[in-house]
Protein backbone atom coordinates (compact mmCIF):
# COMPACT_ATOMS: atom_id res chain seq x y z
CA UNK A 1 0.00 0.00 0.00
CA UNK A 2 2.79 2.44 0.96
CA UNK A 3 4.74 1.59 -2.18
CA UNK A 4 1.72 2.40 -4.34
CA UNK A 5 1.24 5.71 -2.56
CA UNK A 6 4.79 6.78 -3.37
CA UNK A 7 4.64 5.55 -6.95
CA UNK A 8 1.80 8.01 -7.52
CA UNK A 9 3.52 11.03 -5.94
CA UNK A 10 3.61 14.15 -8.11
CA UNK A 11 6.79 15.94 -7.07
CA UNK A 12 5.65 19.19 -8.73
CA UNK A 13 2.81 19.54 -6.20
CA UNK A 14 3.04 20.78 -2.60
CA UNK A 15 3.17 17.90 -0.14
CA UNK A 16 -0.03 19.28 1.43
CA UNK A 17 -1.89 17.99 -1.65
CA UNK A 18 -0.48 14.46 -1.30
CA UNK A 19 -1.83 11.55 0.70
CA UNK A 20 -1.50 11.36 4.47
CA UNK A 21 1.14 8.63 4.14
CA UNK A 22 3.27 10.74 1.81
CA UNK A 23 2.97 13.77 4.09
CA UNK A 24 3.98 11.76 7.14
CA UNK A 25 7.01 10.33 5.34
CA UNK A 26 8.04 13.81 4.16
CA UNK A 27 7.81 15.25 7.68
CA UNK A 28 9.77 12.30 9.06
CA UNK A 29 12.56 12.74 6.50
CA UNK A 30 12.67 16.51 6.99
CA UNK A 31 13.04 16.42 10.76
CA UNK A 32 15.40 13.43 10.66
CA UNK A 33 17.60 15.40 8.25
CA UNK A 34 17.40 18.44 10.54
CA UNK A 35 18.42 16.28 13.51
CA UNK A 36 21.34 14.89 11.49
CA UNK A 37 22.40 18.44 10.65
CA UNK A 38 22.32 19.47 14.32
CA UNK A 39 24.30 16.36 15.29
CA UNK A 40 26.88 17.11 12.57
CA UNK A 41 27.12 20.68 13.86
CA UNK A 42 27.79 19.43 17.42
CA UNK A 43 30.46 16.99 16.24
CA UNK A 44 32.18 19.58 14.03
CA UNK A 45 32.03 22.16 16.81
CA UNK A 46 33.58 19.76 19.31
CA UNK A 47 36.43 19.07 16.89
CA UNK A 48 37.01 22.75 16.11
CA UNK A 49 36.93 23.90 19.73
CA UNK A 50 39.56 21.29 20.53
CA UNK A 51 41.75 22.31 17.59
CA UNK A 52 43.95 25.20 18.82
CA UNK A 53 44.90 26.61 15.43
CA UNK A 54 41.22 26.97 14.44
CA UNK A 55 40.29 28.74 17.70
CA UNK A 56 43.40 30.92 17.63
CA UNK A 57 42.89 31.63 13.93
CA UNK A 58 39.31 32.84 14.44
CA UNK A 59 40.31 35.12 17.33
CA UNK A 60 43.31 36.38 15.37
CA UNK A 61 41.00 37.39 12.53
CA UNK A 62 38.61 39.09 14.96
CA UNK A 63 41.50 40.96 16.58
CA UNK A 64 42.80 42.32 13.28
CA UNK A 65 40.31 45.18 13.32
CA UNK A 66 36.66 46.09 12.89
CA UNK A 67 36.65 45.27 9.19
CA UNK A 68 38.09 41.78 9.66
CA UNK A 69 34.85 40.43 11.14
CA UNK A 70 32.97 42.07 8.27
CA UNK A 71 35.10 40.01 5.89
CA UNK A 72 34.32 36.85 7.89
CA UNK A 73 30.61 37.72 7.87
CA UNK A 74 30.70 38.37 4.13
CA UNK A 75 32.46 35.06 3.47
CA UNK A 76 29.93 33.26 5.70
CA UNK A 77 26.99 34.81 3.84
CA UNK A 78 28.51 33.92 0.48
CA UNK A 79 29.14 30.31 1.46
CA UNK A 80 25.70 29.83 3.01
CA UNK A 81 24.02 31.42 -0.04
CA UNK A 82 25.86 28.98 -2.30
CA UNK A 83 24.99 26.06 0.01
CA UNK A 84 21.30 26.99 -0.08
CA UNK A 85 21.38 27.19 -3.87
CA UNK A 86 22.88 23.69 -4.03
CA UNK A 87 20.12 22.34 -1.81
CA UNK A 88 17.26 24.27 -3.39
CA UNK A 89 18.04 24.03 -7.09
CA UNK A 90 19.49 20.57 -7.55
CA UNK A 91 17.42 17.44 -8.16
CA UNK A 92 20.41 15.29 -7.22
CA UNK A 93 20.10 14.23 -3.58
CA UNK A 94 23.89 13.97 -3.21
CA UNK A 95 24.26 17.60 -4.26
CA UNK A 96 21.45 18.63 -1.90
CA UNK A 97 23.14 16.88 1.03
CA UNK A 98 26.47 18.45 0.02
CA UNK A 99 24.78 21.85 0.24
CA UNK A 100 23.41 21.04 3.67
CA UNK A 101 26.80 19.85 4.94
CA UNK A 102 28.51 22.96 3.56
CA UNK A 103 25.98 25.11 5.41
CA UNK A 104 26.52 23.18 8.65
CA UNK A 105 30.31 23.50 8.25
CA UNK A 106 30.05 27.26 7.74
CA UNK A 107 27.84 27.59 10.84
CA UNK A 108 30.33 25.54 12.87
CA UNK A 109 33.16 27.92 11.95
CA UNK A 110 31.19 31.09 12.68
CA UNK A 111 30.10 29.74 16.09
CA UNK A 112 33.65 28.98 17.31
CA UNK A 113 34.34 32.37 18.98
CA UNK A 114 31.02 32.75 20.79
CA UNK A 115 31.01 29.16 22.05
CA UNK A 116 34.62 29.43 23.21
CA UNK A 117 33.82 32.61 25.15
CA UNK A 118 30.68 31.02 26.64
CA UNK A 119 32.73 28.04 27.84
CA UNK A 120 35.41 30.34 29.27
CA UNK A 121 32.86 32.25 31.36
CA UNK A 122 31.96 29.20 33.45
CA UNK A 123 34.75 26.75 32.55
CA UNK A 124 32.12 24.27 31.40
CA UNK A 125 29.12 23.87 29.09
CA UNK A 126 26.56 25.37 31.50
CA UNK A 127 25.67 28.45 29.44
CA UNK A 128 25.67 26.54 26.16
CA UNK A 129 23.44 23.83 27.65
CA UNK A 130 21.01 26.42 29.02
CA UNK A 131 20.81 28.19 25.67
CA UNK A 132 20.45 24.88 23.84
CA UNK A 133 17.56 23.74 26.03
CA UNK A 134 15.79 27.09 25.70
CA UNK A 135 16.29 27.04 21.93
CA UNK A 136 14.89 23.53 21.51
CA UNK A 137 11.95 24.30 23.80
CA UNK A 138 11.03 27.42 21.83
CA UNK A 139 11.56 25.61 18.53
CA UNK A 140 9.26 22.79 19.66
CA UNK A 141 6.59 25.25 20.77
CA UNK A 142 6.68 27.16 17.48
CA UNK A 143 6.54 23.91 15.50
CA UNK A 144 3.53 22.81 17.53
CA UNK A 145 1.72 26.09 16.82
CA UNK A 146 2.01 25.55 13.06
CA UNK A 147 1.08 21.87 12.97
CA UNK A 148 -1.75 22.14 15.49
CA UNK A 149 -3.52 25.00 13.75
CA UNK A 150 -4.60 26.10 10.29
CA UNK A 151 -3.04 29.54 10.68
CA UNK A 152 -1.60 30.99 7.49
CA UNK A 153 1.89 32.40 8.06
CA UNK A 154 2.56 33.27 4.41
CA UNK A 155 2.20 36.98 5.25
CA UNK A 156 5.44 36.76 7.23
CA UNK A 157 7.63 36.45 4.13
CA UNK A 158 7.81 40.18 3.41
CA UNK A 159 8.08 41.05 7.11
CA UNK A 160 11.01 38.66 7.54
CA UNK A 161 12.75 39.96 4.41
CA UNK A 162 12.58 43.55 5.67
CA UNK A 163 13.55 42.46 9.19
CA UNK A 164 16.64 40.57 8.03
CA UNK A 165 17.83 43.49 5.88
CA UNK A 166 17.38 45.89 8.80
CA UNK A 167 19.18 43.50 11.14
CA UNK A 168 22.07 43.05 8.72
CA UNK A 169 22.37 46.81 8.29
CA UNK A 170 22.38 47.30 12.06
CA UNK A 171 25.05 44.62 12.53
CA UNK A 172 27.27 46.16 9.85
CA UNK A 173 26.85 49.65 11.33
CA UNK A 174 27.70 48.27 14.76
CA UNK A 175 30.90 46.76 13.40
CA UNK A 176 31.94 49.89 11.50
CA UNK A 177 31.11 52.45 14.18
CA UNK A 178 31.93 50.24 17.17
CA UNK A 179 28.72 50.48 19.17
CA UNK A 180 27.32 47.63 21.24
CA UNK A 181 24.05 46.26 19.89
CA UNK A 182 22.93 45.29 23.38
CA UNK A 183 20.25 43.11 24.92
CA UNK A 184 17.32 44.66 23.09
CA UNK A 185 18.84 43.81 19.72
CA UNK A 186 19.31 40.20 20.82
CA UNK A 187 15.68 40.04 21.94
CA UNK A 188 14.57 41.47 18.59
CA UNK A 189 16.67 38.88 16.76
CA UNK A 190 15.12 36.08 18.85
CA UNK A 191 11.72 37.35 17.71
CA UNK A 192 12.92 37.50 14.10
CA UNK A 193 14.37 33.97 14.26
CA UNK A 194 11.13 32.72 15.84
CA UNK A 195 9.15 34.26 13.00
CA UNK A 196 11.49 32.58 10.53
CA UNK A 197 10.86 29.20 12.18
CA UNK A 198 7.10 29.76 11.99
CA UNK A 199 7.31 30.66 8.31
CA UNK A 200 9.71 27.81 7.40
CA UNK A 201 7.50 25.31 9.24
CA UNK A 202 4.42 26.65 7.45
CA UNK A 203 6.27 26.19 4.13
CA UNK A 204 7.09 22.59 5.10
CA UNK A 205 3.44 21.98 5.82
CA UNK A 206 2.06 23.74 2.75
CA UNK A 207 4.58 24.54 0.01
CA UNK A 208 7.49 22.09 -0.24
CA UNK A 209 7.14 19.09 -2.55
CA UNK A 210 7.50 15.54 -1.21
CA UNK A 211 11.08 15.20 -2.52
CA UNK A 212 12.33 18.48 -1.00
CA UNK A 213 13.06 17.33 2.53
CA UNK A 214 16.73 18.41 2.32
CA UNK A 215 16.10 22.08 1.42
CA UNK A 216 13.24 22.08 3.94
CA UNK A 217 15.59 20.83 6.66
CA UNK A 218 18.26 23.38 5.67
CA UNK A 219 15.74 26.21 5.97
CA UNK A 220 14.83 25.08 9.47
CA UNK A 221 18.47 24.56 10.42
CA UNK A 222 19.36 28.12 9.41
CA UNK A 223 16.55 29.57 11.54
CA UNK A 224 17.37 27.28 14.47
CA UNK A 225 21.04 28.33 14.48
CA UNK A 226 20.07 32.01 14.36
CA UNK A 227 17.75 31.47 17.32
CA UNK A 228 20.44 29.59 19.26
CA UNK A 229 23.05 32.33 18.60
CA UNK A 230 20.94 35.12 20.08
CA UNK A 231 19.53 33.12 22.97
CA UNK A 232 23.13 32.26 23.86
CA UNK A 233 24.04 35.96 23.71
CA UNK A 234 21.19 36.74 26.10
CA UNK A 235 22.23 33.97 28.50
CA UNK A 236 25.84 35.17 28.38
CA UNK A 237 24.83 38.79 29.06
CA UNK A 238 23.05 37.71 32.24
CA UNK A 239 26.26 36.08 33.50
CA UNK A 240 28.61 39.03 32.95
Automatic annotation (TrEMBL):
The keyword Repeat does not apply. Keywords: Membrane, Transmembrane, Transmembrane helix. InterPro entries: Bax_inhibitor_1-related (IPR006214). The keyword Transmembrane helix applies. It is a multi-pass membrane protein. Its main location: membrane. It is found in: Membrane. It holds the Pfam family Bax1-I. The chain crosses the membrane at residues 31-55, 67-83, 95-119, 125-147, 159-177, 183-202, 214-232. GO terms for cellular component: membrane. This is Permease.
Amino acid sequence: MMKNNFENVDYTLPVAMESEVVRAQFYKKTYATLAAGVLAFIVLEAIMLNTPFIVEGMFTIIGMGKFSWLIVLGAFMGITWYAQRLADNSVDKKVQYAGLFLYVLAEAFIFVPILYIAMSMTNDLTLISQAGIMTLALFGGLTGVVFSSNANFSFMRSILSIGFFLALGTIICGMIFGFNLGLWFSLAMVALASGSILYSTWQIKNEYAANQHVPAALSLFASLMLLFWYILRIVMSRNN
